[in-house]
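Memo to structure team: turn this sequence into structure tokens by end of day. - J.P.
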Amino acid sequence: MDIGGPTNIQHVAHVTFDRFNGFLGLPSEFEPDVPTKAPSASAIVFGVSTESMQLSYDSRGNCVPVVLLLLQSRLYDQGGLQVEGIFRITGENSEEEYVREQLNTGMVPDGIDVHCLAGLIKAWFRELPRGVLDPLPAGQVMQCESDDDFVKVVRLLPQTEASLLNWAINLMADVVQFEHVNKMNSRNLALVFAPNMSKMADPLTALMYAVQTMKLLKSLTEKTLGEREVMSTHVDTRCSNEAEEGEEEEEEEEEEEEEEEEEEEEGGGVCIIKEKAPEIIRVVVD
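Reply from structure team:
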């Protein structure tokens, strides 16, 4: 039996999905069969998998939950990167609970302490149903001894976890770039982030794995900082070369103008003008 193409096609309605209000623009005849409210998992932003959350892309192309981008943007706007002890000092519990409720509605209130914002970022990772590094074989992670080993093992992460890890590493690198002010180097940040990146039932194993996770985060953060420095040096060199080339061109133009003026003076007031096609020489006498 052959199946033909669609016939009698009509554009009935344009329907969009909102994570807080469900389907918008849904025709009334479909409403009994389709829930108007979003699934309960998507109505909260802590303790749920990323698949049930609203996602967006950061400036580096990482697809991450919007809640992380909201917290990061507010943290940066309020000068959190320059605050001493950021991500190490904890915020007020009462304020954190209030902000959690507001984040479930897609908002970050004004005037929130930066330590509370930083703490919520760590809490988001800590409360994931599965830790960002949990998909990695624990044995392979424990066997890593060099920076190259860590780079190779994180390549085994699925795309979702890889994007989250890359986002977190770049966040840590942003903080370390202000180490002279906030007193948070790569080791300090790795120390406070490591317990939030994996979940293990056995306390002893969890402690040993957290130490190795700290080394992994520290290694990747320093690698990212090194790449940024190389990129910055490359850009500075290119700009310097372009500036030098521009100066050389200006000097050559000035020299050509001076030579033309000298030729005119030596010609005793006679200027010879050559035209290309046809080969004609016109003599102009002052």
